[in-house]
Structures are given as C-alpha cells and as structure tokens.
Amino acid sequence: MRAALVVLLLLAAPALAAPPTSDAARLNVDLGPDFTRTTVWILPPLDHRPLLGAETAPVPALEGLIEGLQGYANLDVRTPDRTSAAIAGSTAYRRALPLARAAATRGTEDYRQVRLAVAIEGLGQAVEAFIDIGHDVVAGTEVGRTELTRGLALLEKGDEVGAAAALRRSLLLAPGVRLRRGVDRQAAVDAQERARVILAENLPAAPAVFAHRPPVPGKAATLQIRILPDRLEVVLHEGGRVVTDVQLLDAPDAGQRLAGRLWACLPFGDAPRRRVSPRRLHLDAGFAWFVYTKAPVELFGNVGVSATASWSVARYLALEASAALTNSGRDREEDLRAEVPVGRFTAGPAFATDAGRLRAVAGVGVEVAVIGPVETTTNPACKYFRPGDVPARLCDFDQDVDQRETAWAVGPTVTLGASLRLVDAIYLGVRAQGAVYVFRTLDNGLDRPVGGQLVLGYQLF
Amino acid sequence: MLSRHAIIWAGLLAAGAAGCSSEREFSGIWQQVCDEEHPCVAGGLRFELHLGRYGDALTGLLVRYRDPGPELDAYRKSNDCGCFFVDSGRAGDETVSFRVDALGEAGYPDTEGTRAQSCDPAPVECPGGTFVLRGDGDLLTGTLTCDGVDVPVQFVSATGRPRTVCLPPEALE
Q1: What is the per-residue pLDDT across A294-346, written as a single tens digit (0 to 9) for each?
Q2: Could you tell me if A218 and A39 are in contact, meaning their C-beta atoms sit under 8 angstroms apart?
Q3: Contacts of A303 in chain B (CB under 8 A)
Q4: Which CATH code of 3.90.930, 3.30.160, 2.60.40, 1.10.357 fits the domain covering A32-76+220-270?
Q5: Four-residue CA torsion sign, A283, A286, A291, A293
Q6: Chain B contact for A99, CB < 8 A?
Q7: What residue spans define the domains of chain A?
Q8: How many residue pairs from chains A and B have C-beta atoms closer than 8 A?
Q9: Nearest to B12 among A299, A329, A391 (CB)
C-alpha cells in the first residue's frame, strides 16, 4: 500500500511541480514558424458621415481597431491599403477594368448626347462590372459618380423613382460626391439632396450596405467597416458566416474593444502542419523485357519477371533496388542455339518526383548480371541436326558451335520510370533501363542490355 | 548517326518479335506429287523433303521412297529407300535451292535399321542433284537438275515433324 502511494506521488510530482498555465498564456505563446495564421483582409472603411451632415475628422478608434487586430499573433491582418492593392493587382481586375471603364465612358457620352435609354443601360452595366471586380473598394468615388450619372439620366428621362434609387446608391458608394448648385441642374441637385435626406433618415443597415463581398484573394476573412458619427459598424465575412458588430466611439479604447470581439469570432488558425515523412516504400513487380544491343548474334529478346523496391529517403531522392529474371528467345536466324537465362540485379540512387497521380523516377546505379551459358553457331546443319546425327563435313559440333559458360558481369546502369496511381496505393508503372558492362568473368559477347519493365506496384507507406 | 539509331531501334523492335517468330517459311515436310507435268523420277521413286530454314540458310534431309503404285501411299517407312543430307541450301522470300549429293545411290538407312540398303527399282545415275524450287502456298514447284538434265518436280506441304536423323549407326563412329 505504501509502495503504491509512493509510485502515485512520483507520477504526480512533475504535474504538481509545473506552474499552472492560463488559457491566455497558452494562446500567446510563440506559435512557431509553421503556424498558419488566420488572414483578415480589412477593406477601406466606408465613411457615411457626409450623408448625415457630420464632419469627417479622423477616427482614432479605427486606428485602434486595426492595431488591435494586428496585435494578435494568430492573425495575419492585411491593412486597407494592402487590400486595395491586392484587389487591383488581380488578373481578373486588370482584365475587366478597361472594359468597365469603356462602358462607363460610352454611357457618359450617351448621356451628354441625350441618348438617355442607351446611357442608362450602359452606365448600369458599367456600375455592376465595377462592383463585381471590387472597383468600388479601390475607387469608390469613380463608381459612385458613374451611378450618379445614371441617376441623372433616369431623372431626365422622367423616371423619378429609378432616379431616386440610383442617387441613393451613388451616395452610399461615394458619400462625399455632391452636385453643385448653380452649376448642375437645379432639379438634379434637389433630387440628390432628397436622396441624401432619405438616407439620413433611414440609413440602410451595414449588412445591406456590405452585402457584396469584394473579391479578395483566397478564402480569407474580410472585414468591412462603416464610419458613422457616433459609431463604427463592421461586417465580418468568415467562411460561410457573416458577423455584424457595432462599436460606439465614445467608449474608452473603442477600437481595441471591437478588435477583441472580432478576434473572438475568428478562427484561431491552423496548428503547425505535421511534417509528412518523405520516407515511402514502393514495391512493384511485373514483366521485364530487354535485348543485348551488343551480341555475337542478331538481336534477340529476353522476357521474364522483375521486382523493384524504391525507398524515398528525401523529397526528391530515392534508393532503388531491382531484380529481374529472364529467359531469352532466339534471334532471327537462330544462331543462338539455346535459351539464355539471365539474372539482373541493380541498385542505386534515383531522382523521384510526384505530381498528383503521376510519379517519375530517373536513376543511376550498378548492375550485376549473371548470364547463363551461351551457345551459338552460324552453321545451319548444326542448328537442324543433333550431335551424332550429321556427318562432320556438314557440321562439326566441336568446331562449328561456340559454347560459353555462365558469366558474371558488372557495370553502370541508367533507369527512367513513370508510374500512374490507379487506386489507393496501387499504381501501374513502366521503366526503361540500360546498362554497360565494364567487368565480366567471361566474355560471352553479350553487352549493353536495353529494355523495360511493365509493373504493378503498391506503396507500402 | 540518325540512320544508325534508326537501325538500332528497328532492331530492338524486331528482336521483340524475333524471339517468337524467326523466319521459318519452307521449314517442314514437303512430299513430291507426280502428274503429267511433273513425272516422278525413274517412274518408281518419290522424294520427301525435310527442311529447316534459318534466315537465308536452308538445311535438312531428302528421303527417297519407292512408289508402291497408284492409290497407295508412298510415304511410309516401309517404302523408305534412301536418305540424303541437304547441302548448300539457300532460302529467299519465294524460292529455295539446295544440293543433294549421290542422289542415285542407295542412301543411308535410318537409325533403327528397318530398311534395306538397296533400293528397288534402282535409281537413275545422279551424282549430285540440284533443286531449285519456288514456293506458292502449299506448293513447291521447280526443277531437279541432275547431270545437266532438268526434271520438273513439285512438292506439297505435309504435316508432321521433320526428320533429323539419317546416318546409319556405324557412320556415327
């Protein structure tokens, strides 16, 4: 009993001795270089204070919000400037912007030429195109003015309802843009003012204003901010969620408070990715075929079975070993009088790379081959008759038949291979192989084997 | 250099097939058929060719049979009366040619010794016969030149395993 108590104390001692760690402390520890932080794109704030007739002084809480988010180690905060630059730098944006601008220019020209119907349609298409590519984020004033022109065209056409909607939308996009009394038509100035008053009295909620999510790179979270005289309204798009929040500006540390609440809504990030071991073992077996390109007779095929093991020890490095057992056929004139069994063993390093279901291998190594007896003759009578069945004047087997005993040969080898993963860990592969013998125990005339393998393999791990 | 590579690759491809199918056309057994255009030699003997082709080279045996008469099968062991080695044989795409020495002599008995050394009726004198034949499907048609005299001959393909034994036992020593 006492011994058990001692063991329990010994086991519990390390835990009791360790200082307690709070959640906050654990969250603030170094996340490490492999930690994937949560990316937050902050869009340029939309200042709707002009709609309410308020001053547009700098908002310290906005800076506090951005700095507060940047203070969290698990967040990768992209400031509004970076967000605008990222949107403007996208390929889709650069391709579509000239077309949208051309449509806007044509629409404006149509409006000046009083081709109102065409102008309304063209300007409307331009505004939609601008918003689709995020140009309202990059240059909201330009988009707002385009929508304003459309509103003016609608007004001149007599569509007061449509004009009012367009003028309200233009004010939401570009709150500071105003028609000038004495310069612009008085009716238009009045209509815009009426639109502003309506917006001031019944300002659309932030989710409605930020209903369209700008096309930021990737699938990161986006934060859209609206500045009002007394508060900041934010809409956070993260994954499939939409989070709205309001922060009154008169609260102390308003920006930090809002940042804290938003941080709590964001995913913490991805833990360091577990390193995937490059060590993998591929085993395959199949059919082997090759010819000796240097031989005392015409080329003859060798067919058999092969097996290969490929062990990936690094990202692009594998160690390969292969064995093949084959038996020869005959050459065209059958000068080769007996089938030649051959065993080939190769080993060496290889460059290996994977691309989806494909895997390619290129390697060098050493081949050790054991070549069975080689019996050749060019005398047709020696081919047709057996020894003792033919007079020596037609075939003298001792003289006319060349017989070489089993030989060993060693030389460098080159291998090229490719495989296609069929299903799960099973793959189909082909491999080409060539070698040159530099050492042999007996010169049987056979050298420079070139051939290939067709294999079915399995990736063990 | 290009042509050399082309030859090597063509050889590699050919070798793939060569292992299983060397040129063996004309290899096999061919039995003489006699008609008005191709009368049998001496009126009572028939030839059977046992050929083996290896590329452009041709070898094998010529076996001579007594003709037992119409309606009977001459190519039976009991009618065997001579065996000769094919020498200097060549084979082309459509033709074969070879020489047979001492075609007029009795010839060797087979290894079992089941036939006599003599051949009755006695064959014509022919110290060396040369066959030049052209293949046409299952037929080999051509001439046997013997002592400067051309004799038209025709052979038809027969099934079976070609003979490779011709020498009498004492000749093997």
Answers
A1: 998 989 999 999 999 999 888 889 999 999 999 999 888 889 988 999 999 99
A2: yes
A3: 19
A4: 3.30.160
A5: negative
A6: no
A7: 32-76+220-270, 91-207, 280-387+396-459
A8: 90
A9: A299
